[in-house]
Amino acid sequence: MGLTKKIVLAMIAGIAVGLIFNFLDTSQVLGARVTSFINSYLTNGLFDIVGRIFIASLKLMVVPLVLVSLICGACALSEGSRVGVLAGKTVLLYLVTTAAAISLALLLAIVFQPGVGMEAIAGDASFDPKPSPPLSEVLVNIFPTNPVDAMAKGNMLQIIVFALLMGYAISRSGKPGQRVAGFFNDLNEVILRMVSVLMVFAPYGVFALLANKIAQLGFDTILLLLKYFLVVLGALLLHAFGVYSLLLKLLSGLSPLKLFKKMRPAMVFAFSTASSAATIPVTLQTVEKRLGVDNKVASFTVPLGATINMDGTAIMQGVATVFISQLYGIEIGLMGYLTVILTATLASIGTAGVPGVGLIMLAMVLQQVGLPLEGIAIVMGVDRLLDMVRTAVNITGDSVVSTIVAKSEGALHMDTFKDDNYNSVVDNGEGRRATS
Ligand code: ASP
Fold first, then answer.
1. How far is the CA of 70 from the centre of ligand 1 (A)?
2. What CATH number has the domain bearing residue 23?
3. CA 3 to CA 169: how far, in whole Å?
4. Which of 39, 73, 75, 114 measures 20 to 30 Å from 131, CA to CA?
5. How many CB atoms lie within 10 A of CB 152?
6. Any ligand 1 atom below 6 A from CB of 317
7. Contact 325, 368 (CB under 8 A)
8. Collapsing DSSP states into helix, strand and coil, what is residue 409?
9. What domain range is 113 assigned to?
10. Residue 436 domain-assigned?
11. Cα dihedral sign for 366, 367, 368, 370?
């Protein structure tokens, strides 16, 4: 069985076991002793440990992979001096898709009114927001003062700036530059191999993470907030399969179905980790090796997207804002909605893709339009599951934009995109491998 298949099976098994444990925990059919054994030794014991080790092993690869891969990419790019055009197109597409996502979310929430009739639960919820960074700070912080510090902290935007600069300088340094470029190209191969080695353990990690998280979900809260939950989910699916398909078809003429199929393993990773940052190694490999986006484009667009492009998160914020305004009976009006679109789009630039960060951004949005922050405490109850789904949407958005940009720059390997036998993402570092 190919590793991709194993990972998908692990996801299904993890969800199933999680659901069973959740049921046992809430219904107590097997008695307190068995339930407490399951909780302490499996859910919060074995599964928790394996899941956390799995996330650590993914995160471990993020900084070296982004740095080295982007230096190689920037080096290749600078030779054709296309960096500016490429960056412009990418950022523009990221911002436009995010604004479209949040507009779609607002529209659906206004039509379906998830908060109307729910005013009673607004009651005495309270929430203590963590401060979100002001925009000026975000802009200044893109420029590193110390590359080692940026890497130590995993500050993706700073790492991107440093790698772009270094790649550019390498390409302008003649013979010494060529030697350094050769070294980084070799190092890139080695790091990709490391990712492949770690991927062998991915099915266990995916299983443990999902079994752990699903077992802990409060399904009764989801039932209580079912309408909100369904509107967010509906908007996420519509954006992922409707808007992205349309964009891909219109702007590049490529088959969306093929892209979705090939992105499947990366979506499973994003879903189980709820972190687009931790998923970067898998997204990058998938986009390059399966979709055929050249490294010089993908090494820039994927890490950047994981940091600044969060369409799924924007959707949650759109629906949540309308939901909370209905809950508290506060009308925010057209200006309010426009403010939401602008704030949510900008907020996504400054926050890294890690679990639950969407709620911090939501605090920023609510504050802008004068809605009570306590509303966050209410939606928080159902946020984990939505976080998983929206993270999968976030990285799908990154891959769609990467593919569109690559196609427009003549950097999409069409034979790879069309080839159905490409299974290299998680199977090995070499590329071609027949699927069974
Ligand atoms: N978990 C999301 C991500 O990493 C961010 C969020 O919506 O909280 O992309």
1. 23
2. 1.10.3860.10
3. 39
4. 114
5. 10
6. no
7. no
8. coil
9. 3-428
10. no
11. positive
Measured CA to CA, the distance from residue 288 to residue 355 in angstroms comes to 25
Q: What is the pLDDT of residues 10-20, one digit of tens each?
A: 999 999 999 99
- How does pLDDT run across 150-199, given as a tens digit for each residue? 999 888 889 989 998 999 899 889 999 999 999 999 998 899 889 888 88
Q: Does residue 383 line the site of ligand 1, with CB under 6 A?
A: no
Mean pLDDT for 364-378 is: 87
What is the secondary structure of 94-126 as a DSSP string? HHHHHHHHHHHHHHHHHHH-TTTT-GGGGTT--
Q: Is the pLDDT of residue 431 over 50?
A: no
Residue 435 inside a domain? The answer is no
Task: Quote the number of domains for the chain.
Answer: 1
Residues 356 and 212: their CA atoms lie apart, in Å, by 16
433 found inside a domain:
no
Q: Is residue 434 in some structural domain?
A: no
- The number of the ligand 1 atom at minimal distance from the alpha carbon of 394 is 9
Q: From ligand 1's centre to the CA of 358, what distance in Å?
A: 6
Q: Please tell me the pTM assigned to this model.
A: 0.87
DSSP states of 338-405:
HHHHHHHHHHHHHS---TTHHHHHHHHHHHHHT--TTHHHHHHTTHHHHHHHHHHHHHHHHHHHHHHH
- Residue 295 structure tokens: 């490294």
- By most ligand atoms within 8 Å of CB, the mutation choice from 98, 348, 376, 391 for ligand 1 is 391
**Burial per residue of 74-104, b for 16 or more beta-carbon CB atoms within 10 angstroms, e otherwise:** bbbbbeeebbeebbebbbebbbebbbbbbbb
